[in-house]
Design brief:
With 351 residues, the protein is α/β, with parallel strands linked by helices. 25% of the residues lie in helices and 28% in strands. Pathway: Cofactor biosynthesis; adenosylcobalamin biosynthesis.
Length: 351
């Protein structure tokens, strides 16, 4: 789908160091004078910001569960003018949901196959040597039709350890592109990026998310911000996603149990003191219209947060379910011109 050649950097599982490898590759190629187009397989919105910092060029998400062919093609076209594309996978190479979405199941392997990008697998060899080759060979043989370029060994303990791991890969017929030492300071900082600023247009204020639980006191004191939102909402739409939804609510309880007044445009009371992990694809059918989408529209998105709902008294915005169609209680809210959801909208479904 792109004219530029490319690779997809993946791994057997999360936490193996693929983002570190990805960023190193992006910076090295950019410093060599190449125009590098980065992509992120899946809905993760944090890693693309790191990609941009490393490459100097905007990075884009490619997600086969939420996106149809038209949107995937438009995103692939962002590589126009690039010398090479480097994409980062999410979780393990073949990890996905069980129910097919608009173009697939959301696996990084699907992205690689769709775009025609060979896979480079980042393998954490700590605690093993030749055995790592058996695991890697399984990933190559699991889908023989998937182009598999080779591996990068990560967290190598010594020269002897590297030699043994390479021997195993050689025996399995696998190409080793390089090895990275086990190095405690070769890690990324905490990826908690702070509150994202609002996207503001003449007829719409859209709060796309962030981390209001880290800034609850400052938000409560930001009366000019709250006044501006209320004034806008008198005649024009305001929408908040995840952290933006929380900021539009009545109150937010921080991790110490302190209650902070939010903008009050919706009745939502959320708590970071009572934490629960929410992660996954979301499909929603709107019960009421929201900015850019009519009542009855079917939307696709992704939810990722730790906050819980204490009160959600407003009219539900949508019927929301996970990727398998199981309903979830985070329906979102609407009140007048104001709407909010815990899921981040990716696109409307294509008929």
């Amino acid at each position: 789908m792109t004219d530029a050649p490319g690779l997809l950097i993946s791994a057997p599982a999360s936490g193996t160091g693929k983002t570190t490898v990805m960023l190193g590759l992006l910076r090295a190629l950019a410093q060599d004078g190449l125009t590098v187009q980065a992509f992120k397989s899946g809905p993760d919105y944090i890693d693309p910001a790191f990609h941009r910092a490393a490459s100097g060029r905007m990075s884009f998400n490619i997600d086969t569960w939420t996106m149809g062919a038209g949107l995937l093609g438009a995103i692939a076209a962002q590589a126009t003018g690039a010398d090479i594309c480097i994409a980062e996978g999410s979780m393990g190479l073949y990890d996905s949901v069980a129910t097919r979405g608009q173009s697939g199941f959301g696996a990084s392997a699907e992205t690689a196959a769709l775009m025609g990008w060979p896979v480079v697998l980042v393998v954490d060899v700590s605690g093993q040597a030749q055995s790592a080759a058996a695991v890697t060979l399984g990933f190559k043989l699991y889908n023989p039709d998937l182009p598999f370029a080779g591996v990068i060994l990560n967290r190598v303990a010594s020269a002897r350890h590297e030699r043994l791991a390479r021997l195993g890969m050689e025996k399995a017929g696998l190409t080793v592109f390089g090895a990275l030492p086990r190095q405690g300071d070769l890690t990324l900082p905490e990826r908690h990026l702070g509150l994202v600023q609002a996207a503001e247009h003449p007829d719409l204020v859209w709060l796309p998310g962030g981390y209001p639980e880290l800034h609850a006191g400052r938000l409560a004191a930001a009366q000019t911000f709250a006044k501006g939102l209320r004034e806008h909402a008198r005649t024009r739409p305001v929408h908040g996603e995840c952290g933006g939804y929380m900021a539009l609510g009545q109150a937010l309880i921080d991790k110490e149990g302190n209650r902070h007044r939010m903008a009050g445009l919706l009745g939502l009371v959320s708590s970071y003191e009572t934490r629960k992990f929410h992660l996954g694809y979301r499909q929603a059918t709107l019960r009421a219209a929201m900015a850019g989408h009519a009542k009855g529209a079917r939307l696709r998105g992704h939810e990722f947060h730790y906050s819980t709902i204490i009160e959600q008294p407003d009219t539900p915005l949508a019927d929301v379910a996970d990727a398998d169609g199981v309903p979830v209680p985070e329906t979102g809210s609407c009140r007048g011109t104001v709407t909010g959801t815990f899921f981040h909208l990716v696109t409307a479904e294509q008929d």
